[in-house]
Amino acid sequence: MTTTHCPYCSLQCGMTLVREGRALTVEPWATFPVNEGALCRKGWTSTGLRGHRERLTTPLVRDRAADGSRGELRAASWDEALDLVADVLSRVRTVHGADGVAVFGAGGLTNEKAYALGKFARVALGTSQIDYNGRWCMSSAASAGLRALGLDRGLPFPLADVEKADVLVLAGSNLAETAPPAARHLDRLRARGGQVVVVDPRRTPTAERSDLHLAPVPGTDLALALGVLHLVVAAGAVDEAYVAARTTGFDEVRRSVATWWPEQVERVTGIAAAEVRALADLLIGTARAGGRVLVLTARGVEQHSQGSDTVLAWINVALALGMPGREGAGYGCLTGQGNGQGGREHGQKADQLPGYRSIEDPAARAHVAAVWGVDPTSLPGKGRSAYELLDALGRPATDEAPAGPRAMLVLGSNIVVSAPNALHVAERLRSLDLLVVADLVLSETAALADVVLPVTQWAEETGTMTNLEGRVVLRQRAVTPPAGVRTDLEVIAALAERLDAPSTFPTDPEEVFAELGRASAGGPADYAGITYDRIRAEHGVFWPCPAPYADGTPHPGTPRLFADRFGHADGRARFLVTTFRGAAEQPCDDYPLHLTTGRVLGQYQSGAQTRRVKDLPDTGPFVELHPLLARRLGTADGEVLTVRTRRGSMRAPARVVETIRPDTVFVPFHWVGANRLTNDALDPASRMPEFKVCAAAVSA
Amino acid sequence: MRGGGERMNAHVPEHSQHLVVVGHGMAAVRLVETLVAGGWVERGNRLTVLGDETGPAYNRILLSAVLEGVHDERAITLRDEDWYAAAGVTLRTGARVAEIDRGAREVVLVDRSRVPYDRLVLATGSIPTLPPVRGLVRPDGSLHPTVHAFRSAGDLRGLLAALDDPTRPVRRAVVVGGGLLGLQVARALGARAGRRAVVTEVVEGADHVLSRQLDRAGASILARDLARLGTTVYTGARATRLVASPMPEHAVGVRLDNGHVLATDLVVLTAGGRPATALARGAGLEVRRGIVVDDRLATTDPVVHAIGDCAQHAGRVSGFVGPAWDQAVCLAAHLLAGADGGADGGAGAAPYPGIREVARLRATGLDVAVLGDPEAAAAAGGEVVAVTNPVTRSHRKLVVRDGRIVAAALVGDLARVGLLTQYVERGTVLGPHEPGDLLLPERRTRAAGPADLPDTAEVCACAGVSAGALRACGSLDEVRETTRATTGCGGCSDAVRALLATRTPALTGGNA
């Protein structure tokens, strides 16, 4: 029996893996507090990938002819594959410089892997060109949280605190389907007499469990938040004492919302003015009665070219009502990927060093370089963000931009399914001299690679994850990996050795974690006081958890942030002005509909794992649309539709539902297709692509 | 095209332009904000705003909400003086412009001081029309003390002072004008938050209220709503004269052209406005109803522009903020492009597409939305799809042309107002049935009750459990134990209980 955590989303639900003979089954881990033994069907079936016939157990290499044309992938030995990779990377580095090699990581990697990958890029490759798919997850919330609150930890409190709120606003979250065990907190909140508000263009299963559901036009969430603050100000409901004592910048924000009266919000968002007032009245009445208002954002409002502004505007609402820092109140982000939180803290992001340190901060560089035993000046600077990196692959230098990378190493990401404007991204991947993908199965991205490295999966290895609460948890190895596969840490170490990297690259996760702790010490996300033993004993430890005090007493960790001060040097939160621009691509005569994308309960991310679990429903993609629109198009439930955007097209059956806006269609993104359609316009602050809205045409 | 270089200060770059905006209302503020955000000042250009009111710029739309007491008066300020200073914009409030000297490219203030410009924007707004009522204006030119206009923050303050004057209690009010503003003011007076309501009567010369926006069917429904809320409306009646009150407890009387006299303590004039065009006319620019502008919002003098209520584009003037903002943003794009490119004056920027209006009555208890101009659109040959239901007091009318909804009027039922606004503004082409379908009540089909679910239907999404599997269980404990249904998100708990409760006796027999 091994206690561990689910391989999928950011809840990192606790579970027990039981081995009986050759079988490995999932049983509840009732005492782990985040999920109290509850799991969704993805968790219950998570051992279903074990022993799968498509599991890769030998490296694959694609030979190239003298003219550069590509042959088929063939089996190769580890030595041959690793030698080839090291050889080409060295050559590319010699010819094109260190930034000729790129690294692409993932929010599903353990902290140890994310740390080792960032170190490998900076030390072994010397490249600045490293980023990860977490950029497409919660980077907008991260950017806003850092700017407004001075610290980015998804939830600044344990998830169970959600139950204590009197009003919970879920802005762009469908947690009943995307993180089902978390929905239990909604029911308990409502059983206590609290109310739940859901903002989503679709009446999702989460919205069905709410007291108030507002369905904005995709891409207009910012206008709603501005309109709510307008009414808070208009009603004189601002917590002036809190604003004066704990924040700066309110006056300009107060002025900036004067033009967002409810009828103006209605015109922009498509939400009736009366509903905007109902939401504001609920928040104002609750705050006036001394109650707790909690706003949680998720991808629905964050994956936009104004995603970080939308989060800032909701934080402004929470601050104006005097909520952040109170228990069961304030603002939080529902992180998406399993290690979306930890993955952004330890150096696989283009602008960061371990401990959530800035790579441009000389003191941070000196500290980390000392832990790594290298010269701080040898560390590269900030690189391109995830989409910009992919867009630059294989491109020659221009007057505006330096040349893009010629080779790339990908860990834990299925880019050609999950990147926006995916046809374009696939074309960039094909332009590389070398694409290396480490994965469990031949994902759509691995199928394009020159070298595929088979790696261990979840139950076969040990490592820490940091869940949506900032709780560091431990996944423990339960079974022996199949012969022929290696861990990501072993792959990184083997390549580092072949590249004659300075510093060391241990392969024991606990040893890597101890080094990560030292590298993070003193940073905002300080893990120095966390050990595997403590995590086991305490059901996880919340960062920041600095090294033990001088007398040896351990730091208790920090379940709740912001009670007395925010993360900025002066301890105050920042009100920041945001200006509504709207989605980058607006409907027109040729593409008259809004397209939005999202998840379904039974699948996860690009589906590389879940589509291969036979007990999970693999429906294939579908196009959700309203009966009014179906009648306009002359189609019916189940008929195959073509969805086109300026970037690509896909065909999928219609699902006619009354739960979506009639001007909007929805396509889930777990299958190839949805991201051929999505727009690659980026948020200027977070560099988040606009996955959640673009203009589309649909035909029968 | 650019002129007046010789007047520029030596340290200003040669390409620099001085833009002067006359007016400090909502159009002017949006123009200035857009220019500042676009780098107008950063690029070395100057920007001066001349406003004749003395306070900061404010949101005029919200004045009736302040009157009603649901909006903090301090919270209608759009931008304060500090913002202008920080943005590098010169703001001169209380600066009334007397004339424009186009020859010298100078604006002349009433104190005879002169402000030179390279480009000039007139955002002078509109002036309330004084209805021809004898006795409104006293010999010294001031309004009778019981009479108030309702256009500016100053008007609002005067009205609030009168309402709060303990020496002269206001129990009754007459609103002259049954347009959007008149109805908003009437409802605000009748529904003042935390104060004693004022009995309010509305006098409208046309034969129905909102005569610019609604047809008779819609207006009659609205009039009944008003009556229900305690506001009496006199249509087809003009106020002709202010007379002594027929009742001693009230301050004054309003005589109507039918001879009737309304006793009242307060008279509010909302009988419309007209574009403020005197400066433009005096400067020899083409003026019809408003200051005539082209698709670049330029007047007949290419360096003089006009936006907002004072401007007339393609034969139309608008009194709404939406078009004023659209014009401000469009003009800013032209000015910024012109500042970049110089000679073309911003010809590269997109032309102004024309006025699109959305009129939304902000009045407690009254649901009215008018998109575009339904009466004109119908008269111009649009196809009308309408549902009027006097029983439920709702009237909805869509005017369709080439499959697009070009205008709409909704009274008493604002279902789908958000969606209809999107369709009108985006010009979405609909199917032939769709306008009619949109007027049907929104159906929300309830999923079949648990008892009716076929055995194959999935009930618990978290664990993937079908109704059949649940029906095979004898108790909630058995459900949890054998299927794990209800243990994940908990969303199916009610359905599972219902399924267990409706099990057929034959199935439950053994366990009961």
From TrEMBL, chain A:
Record domain 4Fe-4S Mo/W bis-MGD-type: where: 1-52
Tagged with keyword 4Fe-4S: yes
Pfam families, per database record: Molybdop_Fe4S4, Molybdopterin, Molydop_binding
Molecular function GO terms recorded: 4 iron, 4 sulfur cluster binding; metal ion binding; molybdopterin cofactor binding; NADH dehydrogenase activity
GO cellular component: membrane
Cited Gene3D superfamilies: 2.40.40.20, 3.40.50.740, ADC-like domains, Dimethylsulfoxide Reductase, domain 2
GO BP term (any one): respiratory electron transport chain
SUPFAM superfamilies for this protein: ADC-like (SSF50692), Formate dehydrogenase/DMSO reductase, domains 1-3 (SSF53706)
The entry's keywords: 4Fe-4S, Iron, Iron-sulfur, Metal-binding
Name recorded for this polypeptide: Molybdopterin oxidoreductase family protein
Species for this entry: Nocardioides zeae
